[in-house]
Design brief:
Layout: E1 6-10, H1 23-35, E2 40-43, H2 55-69, E3 74-78, H3 84-93, E4 101-105, H4 114-125, E5 132-136, H5 138-141, H6 147-156, E6 160-165, H7 170-179, E7 185-188, H8 194-199, E8 204-207, H9 214-225, H10 229-247, H11 253-262, H12 278-291
Parallel strand pairs: 1-2, 1-8, 2-3, 3-4, 4-5, 5-6, 6-7
Helix pairs in contact: 1-2, 4-6, 6-7, 9-10, 10-12, 11-12
Enzyme class: lyase
Pfam families: DHDPS
GO molecular function: 4-hydroxy-tetrahydrodipicolinate synthase activity
């Protein structure tokens, strides 16, 4: 699974001012990221505002993305939900053309037990047409997937190939790295802790800030992969303030502000998300100018 070593970007979904999906903007974004040197892309993750897209819109975005990427880099589809049987059906009917894996977040809102989380992913693994990357993001789901549950899934299902870990818990990271199968990937799901995670064995990052600054982000990750932590840390330090600004008023509002300044796509979001304040936008523009 070396194609998922390095930097993946959880792409935003650009919208026009009237709220419709901006397909020219999405093409611009895809080309911007590939030109920036990232190793793979994720379509319709949380950063893509997937919760606010209809079934028809999701299908069209996934299809358009696959055709636009055209196998230039690896491509991952975000498919998740809190109704296991509904997600199973989405997995069964997913058109895999152009895609290499599926990223699926642990169920949100229901707050399942560890056994419930295990059974959810077991059901997905049994029908998945592609390798699965787990996603542990307690700040959004309301529950934490334990290291024990991750290791159990990794050992029992060979098509579960890695985890995007965004718990922020080095206790969890350490346990996963100690106990995982040799080829199971720990991937950072938090831009600010990527370099320290890679120092203990993570194989890369699925990034939000990389939407705007793909070259700087992917260079940082490649340096860490190559063991050059001095160079990686220098780039990490240069991104600290930018990364903070990306999340200070919520994601993906921050990174869409930067993308608008860069001329890649607009900064429109769908409710309940809204654009950042003028003060934050000014700070983001200034930091983007410094780093672009």
């Amino acid at each position: 699974m070396n194609r998922f070593y390095g930097t993946g970007v959880a792409m935003v979904t650009p919208f026009l001012a009237d709220g419709q999906v901006d397909y020219p903007g999405l093409k611009n974004l895809i080309d911007h990221l590939i030109d920036g040197g990232v190793e793979y892309l994720i379509s319709l993750g949380t950063t893509g505002e997937s919760a606010t897209l209809s079934k028809e819109e999701k299908h069209k975005v996934l299809e358009f993305t696959a055709k636009t990427v055209n196998k230039r880099v690896a491509l991952v589809a975000g498919i998740a939900g809190n109704n296991t049987m509904e997600v199973v059906e989405q997995f069964r009917t997913f058109d895999v053309e152009g895609y290499d894996a599926i990223l699926s977040a642990s169920p949100h809102y229901n707050k399942p037990t560890q056994e419930g989380i295990y059974q959810h992913y077991k059901a997905l693994a049994e029908v998945s047409p592609l390798p699965i990357i787990l996603y542990n993001v307690p700040s959004r789901t309301g529950s934490t997937m334990s290291a024990e549950t991750t290791i159990r899934l990794a050992n029992e299902f060979k098509n579960i190939i890695g985890i995007k870990e965004a718990s922020g818990s080095f206790d969890i990271f350490n346990q996963i790295l100690r106990d995982k199968p040799a080829d199971f990937m720990l991937i950072s799901g938090d831009d600010p802790v990527t370099v320290p995670m890679m120092a203990i064995g993570a194989v890369g990052l699925i990034s939000v800030t990389g939407n705007a600054l793909p070259k700087r982000t992917s260079d940082m990750v490649r340096h860490a992969l190559n063991g050059n932590f001095k160079a990686a840390t220098e780039l990490h330090n240069s991104l600290i303030e930018f990364t903070r600004l990306m999340f200070v008023e919520g994601s993906p509002a921050g990174v869409k502000t930067s993308l608008k300044h860069l001329g890649v796509c607009g900064d429109t979001l769908r409710l309940p998300l809204v654009q950042v304040s003028n003060k934050t936008a000014e700070a983001i523009v200034a930091e983007t100018e410094k780093l672009k």
